């Protein structure tokens, strides 16, 4: 299952916030893809941790689930779920990569329900480890498709807490610093003072297009950076995506 | 003991059932036997639910799920649970994956609760309500989560001896936390082996006989999930399920086929392909 | 290192309280020996657990320490220390076998200090897992050499709590029923109403010899049972003790 | 990194040091290097102390021990620690083995405390004083034990890759709880291997590279303790130690021999015998 170009761009932009040697708690789909891309390009020493207990994973193709054979094969360690969540709670995971159905201007994520909790319009799969990663990782990087309905002033249900809405989240024991960045296929946002702020734009998009459809006036940094262009799809960084077989 | 006997004797209607497996070793054969026997009123629990939950909900075996996540792992939502929730045939008690894991871990440690730093913020209210506990040394306020003690845990694994010493490898996820939390454990394995084979490699044992109430040999018993190094995950099945399970008529047939045993017949060629895939070296070209 | 005949007799008497199929948390020396003897005679289905994390151990000779190679070799499972203590706290260990430097009439054990804590006459190695086993095992069986100085009215330091001195210990969540028996080379005592009570005497000893030197008037059951004679030292039950090599 | 560099950089005087190993894999080589470097003022912790504690106390490297038990495992008391306590050269903070394990587990889980059912009765007062905590769901009163966070954990293991992914087998006891609890981990191994060898068998990995600060190859680095399947425990050494360590003059010589490196020279014949014993099949006649 090859990711579409927009997902790939979003993952690529999120990968810009991952530094070599960092320990990243990742999930399936775009978050995992971001770490896999970083590992194959500028951050070969990144350690990927999956909630299934797999540490130092090196999947040879994008896995279908966190418990897939390709997550285990070739990993550095197969631990337990408690091993990895305990490490997360201990505060030694540098970065958590998260997505969700909805995000708001303070980086709160909703992956539980759209609408009223008891009679929802859309019932989603729930937190999984997302709430825990959002609270405990030293920082988080969010990934969101550029679909304006996913951006809301205030999410209807806070599954994964972001910034409090009055300045940035204060880290402490058992408490990370919250969202550091939000990547879309068009841009990278930062959370200056705890609010989503346009910081860098992808080649081919204007600043206005980067915030197009988002239902509030999105803060912008005075000087916007340019995101590096997506590497060639047939290059070595993306070779792993062209593999067939079980995932 | 046969699987039929194990389920009949150890999984009565109304039980709180921990369903083991994380990606691999999901105890599908045990779940199908529960459906065949017409067990009802179960509460199912684990961190992230696999599509085995869908089968048990669709068949009317389960009336409640206690989870951190439910859906088709890596693929999408649970169409079956979503419908059952909307139609009030299913009750959902949800927390985060770590929150649920700690509830099981508390039970496994013989404690009524465990403290944690999660679940204090946001809208997720821990099961039993949001209660705090203060560290008597630091004064730090933490969230308490109550122990969750399953009546029985279903576990699928690679091998066991007839006494119930169980061995496995690969991804275990929350399986051991849930199994140790439970009052009883029912195990299916790919192969029953001689006790001497177990004792020649005690480092691979994941559950000791004294915790295990029943063990039954059921080859391919985790299909369509997988068993590390034995057969691979049937990803095509999971993908097709996302499409097919949207259709209530297909779901009814699936439940019916499960009751009659048709649903678990895997074509030999498909079996062979899954076995072969599990034996490819890592990072094969 | 072959145990002396008195230690052997004491272990044999303690083994009388172990039933087939039970799960026993044992230590090194006489407690382990009792379980090994029971396993080779009347309780082949006994599960021996060592605090080192070894479950279903089957040492082929008396091990020197709980972490010895012979404890691991041929065991059913090598778990962690947390695995076995968690099981103990969960209340699923049928019996703990314990010894100590001193015992009192209520089954309290001292393995910490003789004399004042800060300026002890004799400093002992401390609790180890003994306190935990005493509190958490469903019942305990104590083993004591027949050395009168080890029997005291009240131990100077309660390392491992026994019965409270006013009736039997009440079991509950995280709390076992306490000492069920105390074995010496000469006798087996029970804790009727929570007090050490002579219940059975070994062949060759009188009831008076069984309590000789103990500094209080030891209760006796109205009818005293006879302990079975120690099996022949060259029989199959004791074959494992005649092995050489590493322990 | 060499062991000399690892100890110099990561075990400064005054550190709280968790000493790994339980019967097997006691990190003697690392301990001897600490003595050689003249490190002082250490506090040592683990559940049950091995005779490596005696060396570090005798050499004046450790001024305090935090333990559940201290002595010569399976043989008897610690003559060296007993003397040091009587002469006020050593401070002892003791709890039960489970109590100490829970203190490490709390730290490993990122919690300031854990509740337990032990340490409420009897004369053992938990470190930090006896504090209770009430379960907010059941009202049950439990004992709280405070997290113990070692500055550094010393671990000996079978093998590691140069990145610090560590593999071992056999009895682990409390080694992983203590290592995960610590801020840093210093590892010695019998053999440094290629990362590919580690990744071919990820189920045998006990510590991942990102937790490990340094790894050094030191063959026979656990002697006189053992390494499962590599060499057996030198029981004669432990037995002789019980007799010899009663004599302060012998102990002074032993410390001196450790400083000069003489103490760790194992006769080739003895090495060969210990290696051979480790390769006997279980239950050999």
From TrEMBL, chains A, C:
<dbReference type="GO" id="GO:0008410">
    <property type="term" value="F:CoA-transferase activity"/>
</dbReference>
<dbReference type="InterPro" id="IPR004165">
    <property type="entry name" value="CoA_trans_fam_I"/>
</dbReference>
<dbReference type="InterPro" id="IPR037171">
    <property type="entry name" value="NagB/RpiA_transferase-like"/>
</dbReference>
<feature type="region of interest" description="Disordered">
    <location>
        <begin position="159"/>
        <end position="179"/>
    </location>
</feature>
<protein>
    <submittedName>
        <fullName>CoA-transferase subunit beta</fullName>
    </submittedName>
</protein>
<dbReference type="Pfam" id="PF01144">
    <property type="entry name" value="CoA_trans"/>
</dbReference>
TrEMBL record, chains B, D:
<dbReference type="InterPro" id="IPR037171">
    <property type="entry name" value="NagB/RpiA_transferase-like"/>
</dbReference>
<dbReference type="Pfam" id="PF01144">
    <property type="entry name" value="CoA_trans"/>
</dbReference>
<protein>
    <submittedName>
        <fullName>CoA transferase subunit A</fullName>
    </submittedName>
</protein>
<dbReference type="InterPro" id="IPR004165">
    <property type="entry name" value="CoA_trans_fam_I"/>
</dbReference>
<dbReference type="GO" id="GO:0008410">
    <property type="term" value="F:CoA-transferase activity"/>
</dbReference>
<keyword id="KW-0808">Transferase</keyword>
């Amino acid at each position: 299952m090859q990711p579409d170009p927009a997902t790939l761009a979003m993952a690529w932009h999120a990968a810009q916030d991952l530094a070599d040697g960092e320990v990243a708690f990742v999930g399936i789909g775009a978050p995992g893809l971001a770490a896999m891309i970083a590992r194959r390009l500028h951050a070969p020493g990144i350690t990927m941790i999956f909630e299934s207990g797999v540490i130092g994973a090196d999947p040879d193709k994008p896995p279908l689930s966190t418990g897939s054979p390709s997550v285990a094969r070739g990993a550095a360690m197969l631990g337990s779920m408690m091993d990895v969540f305990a490490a997360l709670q201990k505060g030694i995971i540098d970065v958590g990569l998260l997505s969700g159905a909805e995000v708001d201007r303070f980086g709160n994520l909703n992956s539980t329900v759209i609408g009223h909790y008891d009679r929802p319009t859309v019932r989603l799969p729930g937190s999984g480890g997302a709430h825990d990663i959002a609270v405990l990782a030293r920082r988080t990087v969010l990934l969101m498709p550029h679909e304006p309905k996913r951006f809301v002033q205030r999410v209807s249900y806070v599954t994964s807490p972001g910034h409090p809405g009055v300045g940035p989240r204060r880290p402490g024991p058992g408490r990370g610093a919250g969202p550091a960045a939000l990547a879309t296929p068009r841009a990278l946002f930062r959370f200056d003072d705890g609010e989503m702020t346009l910081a860098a734009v992808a080649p081919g998009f204007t600043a206005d297009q980067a915030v197009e459809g988002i239902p509030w006036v999105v803060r912008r940094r005075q000087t916007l950076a340019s995101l590096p262009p997506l590497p060639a799809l047939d290059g070595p960084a993306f070779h792993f995506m062209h593999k067939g077989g079980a995932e | 003991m046969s699987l039929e006997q194990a389920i009949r004797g150890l999984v009565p209607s109304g039980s709180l059932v921990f369903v083991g497996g994380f990606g691999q070793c999901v105890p599908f054969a045990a779940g199908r036997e529960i459906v065949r026997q017409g067990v009802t009123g179960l509460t199912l629990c684990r961190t992230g639910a696999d599509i085995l939950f869908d089968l048990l909900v669709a068949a009317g075996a389960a009336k409640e799920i206690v989870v951190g996540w439910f859906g088709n792992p890596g693929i999408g939502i649970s169409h079956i649970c979503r419908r059952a929730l909307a139609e009030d045939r299913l009750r959902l008690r949800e927390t985060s994956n770590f929150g649920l894991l700690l509830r099981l871990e508390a039970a496994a440690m013989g404690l009524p609760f465990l403290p944690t730093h999660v679940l204090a913020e946001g809208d997720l209210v821990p099961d039993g309500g949001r209660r705090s506990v203060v560290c008597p040394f630091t004064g730090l306020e933490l969230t308490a989560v109550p122990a969750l003690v399953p009546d029985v845990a279903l576990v699928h694994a690679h091998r066991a001896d007839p006494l119930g010493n169980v061995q496995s490898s690969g991804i275990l996820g929350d399986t051991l936390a849930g199994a140790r939390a439970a009052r009883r454990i029912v195990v299916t394995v790919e192969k029953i082996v001689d006790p001497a084979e177990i004792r020649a490699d005690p480092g691979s044992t994941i559950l000791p006989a004294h915790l295990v109430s029943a063990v039954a040999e059921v080859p391919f018993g985790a299909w369509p999930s997988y068993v590390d190094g034995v057969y691979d995950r049937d990803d095509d099945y999971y993908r097709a399920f996302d499409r097919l399970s949207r259709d209530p008529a297909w779901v009814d047939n699936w439940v019916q086929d499960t009751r009659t045993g048709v649903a678990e017949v895997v074509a030999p060629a498909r079996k062979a392909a899954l076995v072969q895939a599990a034996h490819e070296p890592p990072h094969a070209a």
